[in-house]
Amino acid sequence: MRCIGMNAFQTVLLPQCSPNRIKQLNQLSWEALDQETLDIDLEIQRVTSIEPI
Known about the structure:
43% of the residues lie in helices and 0% in strands. By secondary structure, the chain is mainly α. The mean pLDDT is 86.
């Protein structure tokens, strides 16, 4: 994205989760992931509120 002139950045997703927990989540099926109690709306709000430095 940067090479075409767009501002781009990376951020850690779900920073409240440990690396091991993220690995576990990555291995789940869509159905099992849907049963998890992750506040996805709050995470999307957090990520989209980040302002570039």
